[in-house]
Amino acid sequence: MTQQRYRDLAEWPLMATALVFLAAYAWQVVGRVEGSAGNWLEATMWATWGIFAVDYAVNLHLAPNRRQWFVRNLHELLIVALPFFRPLRLLRLVTLLSVLHRTVGETLRGRVVTYVASSAALLVFVGALAVLDVEQAAPDAKIVTFGDALWWAITTITTVGYGDLYPVTPIGRMVAAALMMSGIAVLGVVTASIASWLVQRVEDTAETAAYAVEEPLRAELSGLVTEIALLRQELASLRDGQPPQ
Amino acid sequence: MTQQRYRDLAEWPLMATALVFLAAYAWQVVGRVEGSAGNWLEATMWATWGIFAVDYAVNLHLAPNRRQWFVRNLHELLIVALPFFRPLRLLRLVTLLSVLHRTVGETLRGRVVTYVASSAALLVFVGALAVLDVEQAAPDAKIVTFGDALWWAITTITTVGYGDLYPVTPIGRMVAAALMMSGIAVLGVVTASIASWLVQRVEDTAETAAYAVEEPLRAELSGLVTEIALLRQELASLRDGQPPQ
Amino acid sequence: MTQQRYRDLAEWPLMATALVFLAAYAWQVVGRVEGSAGNWLEATMWATWGIFAVDYAVNLHLAPNRRQWFVRNLHELLIVALPFFRPLRLLRLVTLLSVLHRTVGETLRGRVVTYVASSAALLVFVGALAVLDVEQAAPDAKIVTFGDALWWAITTITTVGYGDLYPVTPIGRMVAAALMMSGIAVLGVVTASIASWLVQRVEDTAETAAYAVEEPLRAELSGLVTEIALLRQELASLRDGQPPQ
Amino acid sequence: MTQQRYRDLAEWPLMATALVFLAAYAWQVVGRVEGSAGNWLEATMWATWGIFAVDYAVNLHLAPNRRQWFVRNLHELLIVALPFFRPLRLLRLVTLLSVLHRTVGETLRGRVVTYVASSAALLVFVGALAVLDVEQAAPDAKIVTFGDALWWAITTITTVGYGDLYPVTPIGRMVAAALMMSGIAVLGVVTASIASWLVQRVEDTAETAAYAVEEPLRAELSGLVTEIALLRQELASLRDGQPPQ
Predict the structure, then answer these.
(1) Which residues are listed as membrane-spanning (chains A, B, C, D) (predicted)?
(2) Which of B178, C188, D33, D202 could be stapled to B191 by a disulfide with Cβ–Cβ 3.0 to 4.6 Å?
(3) What is the pLDDT along chain A (245 residues), one digit of tens a residue?
(4) How far is it, in rounded angstroms, from Cα B7 to Cα B14?
(5) pLDDT grade for D218, boundaries at 50, 70 and 90
(6) Which residues of B63-74 are buried (b: 16+ CB within 10 A; e: fewer)?
(7) Backbone region of residue B141 per phi and psi (left: phi > 0; alpha: psi in -120 to 50; beta: other values)
């Protein structure tokens, strides 16, 4: 089996695994689940980790050039190898983004906008979860409910930053920095899409004008072809007309 | 009567209704009107709701393909069907935006800029009203006067976010999130318009240069046409000159 | 004397007047000058106001179409007629901007960037002055020194908005809103200039490629012209060669 | 030895000197090193300053036109001449940026993005160091650990500005203003790169279409050439066929 074929087959199961993982993580963090239910959730998350690890191993095995695949996919190894650092586990969800990337929209701009909007929504949700996970145990934490975490994530990704809520732990601050950079990217894509649309609309008008300028040139060429054809006819009649002379 | 004709006829009355609704809502929220005057305002708002509901029904009745129109206009049903959730009623004001969209400006960029500036102003006003409406009753609210609400809306839509004022209720935060996203869109449109203007100006210069490059090609073609015409004359004189030979 | 000629003559004196006004205003606000020195500064500011009023009157008198000029320059009337509202007087400094607009840079983009950078610097300075003017007398003001006002203006125009300092009076908040909008415009121009530069650089490469594609077409046309010329020569020799036959 | 050759030779040693300086400065500021170790660090920093001063002198000596070089490189004199104002010393690190500028990426856009990302990372690090240096001794300082300084620098350059931390000294505020402007530039470059990519992608599609439109023109021209060639053949046969007549 080739690697490409494996990836095609594995895509939807991996998506489902990622969603199961996200649900279990969200439930555990938001519900502060402890005891036997907490153990079940923890077991589910380890199982999803196992699936991702197996996927990594199979991919490495099937790669046409293993060394090259290993070097180019170091980030996947990192994601698989660091499951003990809880918020990092959420990085597995980039799987979801790659599917988003493929499934939506017709025009380039439509695709870009849908992709970014979905990514931003996913980022806000995952960022809120991750920050709540690491912050809620900190002694002087400000973000202690999921509602607060969502609100904080939105004010951060839009770069508004009221400052009524902010992370106080180092890991929470790293999550925040990631969200801020995403915010800049989101802003950039929104602006760029509008700019590209405007530029194109303005240029379409200009191109119609340019076509109008080129039109006479085209007509002149057509006339030239007709002229030459007439010339050849005349020449033929000249030659044919001479023998009887 | 066709749906299009109905919409043309209904447009200005609906605009007026939306403005009456906005005025009544603003008066009620800012003035904290109670008692008999409050009842009158409440009755006015219910009357405007009735007009919007009738408009929805007539539109659905006149639509060429009712099922299609229903599916494509689910958001209008939502706006009509949820009048009990007060700030959502303000969504009816999107009617105003659609009129703005049509009436202003000559060039594409001029239209976009006017549209966005008006939308931003309307959003700030409506956002301030909505937040004041839901916040002023909350026990630990920070936004309790219309002046504060306006100031907060401006700092939010520009993504400055001092944090001296911010909503504390879930609905207030949703309104805030909508304003922030509008802020990003406004920023995007402003930037994009300037970028498109700059790109066009720079390209105009480039196109003038390109025209200069194409000029000799055009001249050569013209020369070719003259040459061929001369050729045909010569050929004609050749044929006509031979009989006397 | 035509209006245009008057404007050319009056430009530099008006610039000087605006600078004198700015210096007097800054001195009065920052130095909290009172007593006889304060009276002198106040007198200076009224004198500059007088000069602007005279300029407005002369312009109106010399305008080819007075009614049209009056309608199109309502903002100038506003600036002249409202000198009692202190921060508004600073609007006269837009005179400085119009000079900036003319004097700097060679390329379009260079002009835009210089213009915006200078405007931003002037806006920060004038915004800080205006806010300090209206805030320093307020009972719960946060901005009470010029250093604080400058710092606040910078955090506002860049849309960072820490919230350590913010205006608390209605007029101060209006000045802040103006600064925020300027911030969005500044951000927009910076981004747009970079985008336009990038687009142009990428297109220059594309155009070089397009020229390479058009080159053979041009060569073909040239060959065609030569061919036709040869044809005519041959034809001429055909006709001239026949008589001796 | 020419100046250009000297610069080529001196580049990597100067880079190394800048890095040594950065390490010594960071160690001193973050570690609050005092006593004999502090003296060693201070001596190292003075030594790096000496190397930069010598480099400036050699450059001035080797310049083809010394007066011109002096005027155009006033900022380098400033950096060398003001070593007593500690944070300003960090400006020497612009040397690092010029190397970044040269070494990375293949396409224009790739180079721009890599350059900006690296500059932003360097700016955050250096800004955090500089602010910590000037703030940690202030009585009411908020930024007193390197972790806090880094977190503050990130919230500032992304223009989020929570306001949980902010500089309180004049020099700290100047460093902050520089970071904010960098933030606007970073945002601008990110947006512009996306916009330029989108515009190019959209135009590539348009250009393919334009080529399709030009194709018939090209075909017609080809046909014309064939036609003329046939014409000449016929003419030749006409002339050659007549003598035997």
Answers:
(1) 12-31, 43-62, 112-131, 143-162, 174-199
(2) C188
(3) 788 888 888 878 887 888 888 888 888 888 877 788 888 888 888 888 888 888 888 988 988 888 888 888 777 777 777 655 556 666 666 656 655 555 544 566 677 777 777 778 888 988 898 899 888 888 888 999 999 999 999 999 998 889 899 999 988 998 899 889 888 887 788 888 877 777 777 666 666 665 555 566 666 666 776 777 777 777 667 666 654 44
(4) 10
(5) low
(6) beeeeebeeeee
(7) beta
Q: From residue A245, how far is each of B243, C196, D41, D241, D245 by CA, in Å? A: 8, 73, 112, 14, 10
Secondary structure in 3-state letters for chain D: CCHHHHHHHHHHHHHHHHHHHHHHHHHHHHHCCCHHHHHHHHHHHHHHHHHHHHHHHHHHHHCCCHHHHHHHCHHHHHHHHCCCCHHHHHHHHHHHHHHHHHHCCCCHHHHHHHHHHHHHHHHHHHHHHHHHHHHCCCCCCCCCCHHHHHHHHHHHHCCCCCCCCCCCCHHHHHHHHHHHHHHHHHHHHHHHHHHHHHHHHHHHHHHHHHHHHHHHHHHHHHHHHHHHHHHHHHHHHHHHHCCCC
Is the pLDDT at B241 greater than 80? The verdict is: no
Integer CA distances (angstroms), D193 to A107, A199, C116, D189, in order: 19, 15, 21, 6
Q: B10: buried, middle or exposed (CB in 10 Å: 19+, 13-18, 0-12)? A: middle
Sequence ranges of the domains in chain C: 1-84
Give the A window 68-97 contacts with C, CB below 8 Å.
Answer: none
* A126-169 pLDDT tens trace: 889 889 988 888 888 899 999 999 999 999 999 888 989 999 99
Contacts of A163 in chain B (CB under 8 A): 161-163
Indicate the angle between helix axes C3-31 and C108-135, nearest 10 degrees: 40
- The string of DSSP codes covering A144-185 is -SHHHHHHHHHHHHTT---SSS---SHHHHHHHHHHHHHHHH
Place of tokens 């989108």: D198
Residue in A with minimal Cα distance to B112: A198
B184 to A155: CB separation less than 8 angstroms, yes or no: no
Write out chain D residues lying below 8 Å of A219, CB-based.
none
Cα separation, C84 vs C49, whole angstroms: 10
Of A172, A102, A126, residue with least CA distance to A19: A126
Query: In terms of Cα–Cα distance, which of D111, D112, D117 is closest to D157?
Result: D117
The secondary structure of B82-107 as a DSSP string is -TTSHHHHGGGGHHHHHHHHHHS-SS
A27, burial (CB in 10 Å: exposed 0-12, middle 13-18, buried 19+)? middle
Subunits with 3+ Cβ pairs within 8 Å of B are A, C, D
Structure tokens at A100: 């988003």
Q: Give the minimum alpha-carbon distance from D198 to chain A in angstroms, rounded to a whole number.
A: 6
Task: Calculate the CA D151 to chain-centre distance.
Answer: 23
Residue C237 per-residue DSSP state: H
* D42-54 residue pLDDT tens: 888 888 888 888 8
Task: Enter the pTM of the model.
Answer: 0.80
**Residues of D in Cβ contact (< 8 Å) with C159:** 159
CA angle A171, A172, A173 (to 5 degrees): 90
